[in-house]
Design goal:
Elements lengths: L7 E2 L5 H10 L4 H12 L14 H10 E2 L5 E6 L5 E7 L5 E7 L26 E4 L3 E3 L8 H5 L1 E4 L2 H17 L4 E6 L9 H12 L11 E5 L3 H9 L5 E5 L5 H7 L8 H15 L3 E7 L7 H10 L5 E7 L13 H13 L4 E3 L22
Iron/sulfur cluster binds next to helix 4.
Length: about 375
């Protein structure tokens, strides 16, 4: 990075912006196509590795742009070998987490997400999932979340979000595999960093490059209502997951502080409008905390809240964190909760959080003393 801090990061540019920049330098769109394919099909580490460029274009790219890969500061595997968690460094010294989940037996569920259905092993190989961060830390302050306990650092740029996907794609390519699923469930609240997140998704979905299909991308939000409304108005093609954790405002506000700003009535109205306007299902996430939100009456309340809605519930047993003393719900209690949801006609899945043995839940590598 000898180019100084004002050089544009190529990963920040949309395909159209890249075309405009090269056009200003006197190159036709054909060359922008070559560069784009070099970045996102060949995963080139720099302009010198992009095939077919004229030497003067290569030299100008090298002089006036950077390609900011994110160096691996730490990598940690779960004991079951299914999860590899990376701590990736940013140019200002901050770090974020990006997780690669391999599922030899990942079910071909509707969301294509990182989930397992107890007792049902699927057999399709190579359906890897990348869990991507959108911010350094998070401003939302959910009490059980390691990222929330860190507080807000800053928004990621589009290029920093894209570079995480490029990193995972490189790792997979070295194993002869390709990335299929992306979940925006790493550090941060994607709808609090709306523009950068959408710009990054445009790049990773672009069929001339990484070409991740929108139906295999899931954006998870804590319930930022204006963001959900904007996703709906803009008809964004990715799947939506909404973190609920409670079906009453009083209890939800204790777990998820933004619930005070966007109460359930407003949140559910935005969710219903989304499902109707886009004719799509929403995945509702519910972190199961022993004795807090896992009673049968909690399940009934959730069933009533989502009545008549095109919804699927993902139940996530709490992954314990240093800053919160709650415990996960046990397997039998989770199944009893599911049975009540089924009575209400609500489909649900218990999602096993993988890699708990390496303290590799959301935000937990970045806050672990041994890696800081
Ligand atoms: N900010 C977004 C996306 C990142 S968090 C959101 O909140 O939806 C992704 C999911 O992990 C959320 O559903 C969140 O509630 C859940 N989560 C965070 N910390 C957790 C923990 N310690 N145990 C279980 N689930 C957790
Ligand atoms: Fe932020 Fe999501 Fe963690 Fe809440 S759960 S603090 S919104 S990352």
């Amino acid at each position: 990075m000898s180019n100084g801090s004002t050089s544009v990061n190529l990963y920040d540019l949309s395909r159209a912006e890249l075309g405009a920049r090269l056009a200003a330098w006197g190159y036709s769109d054909y060359y922008a196509g070559l560069v784009w394919a070099g970045l996102y099909r060949d995963l080139a580490a720099g302009p010198e590795a992009i095939p077919g460029l004229r030497p003067e274009l290569r030299a100008r790219l090298a002089a006036e742009t950077v390609l900011s890969a994110l160096p691996v500061r730490a990598a940690i595997d779960s004991a079951d070998g299914h999860t590899r968690k990376y701590l990736l460094g940013l140019s200002d010294g901050a770090a974020i987490e990006t997780v690669l989940m391999y599922f030899r037996g990942q079910p071909a569920n509707a969301s294509g997400r990182a989930m397992t259905i107890p007792g049902r092993a699927a057999t399709v190989p190579g359906r890897a999932t990348a869990c991507i961060s959108t911010q350094v830390g998070c401003a939302m302050g959910c009490v059980f979340c390691a990222t929330g306990q860190m507080g807000f650092g800053r928004h990621l740029t589009p290029g920093e979000i894209v570079a995480q996907v490029v990193h995972i794609e490189r790792v997979l390519r070295a194993r002869g595999e390709a990335l299929r699923n992306i979940v925006l469930m790493g550090m941060g609240e994607p709808l609090h960093n709306y523009d950068a997140t959408m710009a990054a998704l445009e790049t990773v979905m672009d069929h001339r490059g990484l070409a991740i299909a929108p139906r295999f991308i899931t954006l998870s939000t804590v319930g930022v209502v204006p963001g959900i409304r904007r996703l709906t108005a803009e008809r964004r093609p990715v799947r939506l997951a909404v973190s609920l954790h409670s079906a009453t405002d009083a209890e939800r506000s204790r777990l998820v502080p933004p619930a005070r700003r966007w109460p359930l009535a407003e949140l559910m109205a935005a969710c219903r409008d989304y499902t109707v306007a886009l004719d799509r299902r929403i995945f509702f996430e519910w972190t199961l905390i022993d004795g807090q939100n896992d009673s049968l009456s909690d399940a009934h309340a959730l069933g009533r809240l989502l009545a008549g809605m095109n919804a699927h519930v993902n139940l996530i047993p709490l992954n314990p964190t240093l800053g919160y003393d709650g415990q996960p719900t046990t397997g039998p209690a989770a199944r009893a909760f599911q049975a009540v949801l089924a009575e209400h006609g609500l489909p649900s899945t218990v999602r096993q959080r993988r890699g708990i043995d390496v303290a590799a839940g959301c935000g937990q590598l970045a806050t672990a003393p041994s890696t800081s």
